[in-house]
Specification:
60s Ribosomal Protein L30, Chain: A, two-stranded antiparallel sheet, six-stranded mixed β-sheet, globular, alpha+beta, 8 strands
C-alpha cells in the first residue's frame, strides 16, 4: 500500500490519509466542499458544494495523471437528502462533461458531517496501467 499526498485539493482534517493506493485502486477518504486556496467551506448552496468536491477530486487526480474518468465508485453523505435532486444534477453535469460512463454510486442521509458540512463524498478510483 502507498499513501498518496497532494499539493492540490483540501488537506485531511484529522489523523487519516487523504488517499491510499492498494494495487490498481486508489481509495479517497471523504472530501468536503472546501475551496483549497481560501479554506472556505461551501455550505449555503448544495449544488456548488457538490461541484467543489468534484473539482477538488479532479485536481488531485490530475496530479497523478488521472481524471474523473477513472472514478469507479462514489459514496455521497449529505445532511440535506431532501436536496438530492440538486446534488444529482450537479454530479451529473460534472461527470457528463468528461465521460459517458457514470461511476457506481451510493447516497446516504446523515445527521451531521465534519466541520458542519452539508455534503461529503468518498471515491474509489482505478489507476490506468
Amino acid at each position: 500500500m502507498e499513501v498518496l499526498k497532494f499539493e492540490n485539493g483540501p488537506k485531511a482534517v484529522g489523523p487519516y490519509s487523504s488517499a491510499m493506493r492498494s494495487g490498481n485502486l486508489i481509495f479517497f477518504s471523504g472530501i468536503l466542499p472546501i475551496v483549497p486556496q481560501t479554506g472556505e467551506l461551501l455550505i449555503e448552496d448544495i449544488s456548488k458544494a457538490t461541484q467543489q468536491i468534484l473539482k477538488n477530486l479532479a485536481a488531485m487526480l490530475s496530479e497523478i495523471g488521472l481524471s474523473l474518468k477513472n472514478v469507479v465508485k462514489t459514496t455521497i453523505f449529505t445532511t440535506q437528502l431532501e436536496e438530492f435532486s440538486k446534488i444529482n444534477d450537479a454530479y451529473e453535469s460534472v461527470f457528463k462533461a468528461c465521460t459517458d460512463r457514470y461511476p457506481t454510486r451510493s447516497a446516504v442521509g446523515v445527521k451531521a458531517l465534519p466541520k458542519g458540512a452539508t455534503i461529503e463524498m468518498e471515491f474509489i478510483v482505478e489507476c490506468e496501467k
